[in-house]
Amino acid sequence: MNITIYYLTKKIIIQEKKQxxxxxxxxxxxxxxxxxxxxxxxxxxxxxxxxxxxxxxxxLELGFEKYRKLFKVIYAAGGLIKQNDSYLxxxxxxxxxxxxxxxxxxxxxxxxxxxxxxxxxxxxxxxITSELESTYHIYEYKGDYALKKTFWxxxxxxxxxxxxxxxxxxxxxxxxxxxxxxxxxxxxxxxPAILDVLKNGI
Length: 202
Hints:
With 202 residues, the chain is α/β, with parallel strands linked by helices.
């Protein structure tokens, strides 16, 4: 098992040492201090050669806990919504995405996922059917960087009305796509973390 953190199209992978094979080269996360890790991160995102930065840790959870302390951590939740044989997508900032947003104080990830989907798409009658794997990505935030963990849920809906994009959140369109349309339109123009959600949820 490993944890993948995205920065744009780049990947930071943390893997347990016992799972590493001889032909793999990893930085030892357990031996690096905070300033060394931060320096490696900044060098990695500012050069155009390597697309993957790999770390090994004796304990995956402890290693990830150490790494995420480099950043402000933000929690979000969203949904992969299905109705019949189609899935719901939003078009925002020139890419196809899934509805999601930050978790409010006192809110559970499940509650936040449903609320955000309702707000961003004007959809109703949502039911969570299963929990999908969470995703992680780093982005620029208030002059520094934040690491966002997004909880994802597979959902069904009995919504029968029209859909409306939340314009104030820069959402231009809300569309239902079948598998063929997802392969032809979404996969070629979405984020790496969304590809992981689709791989796990469809």
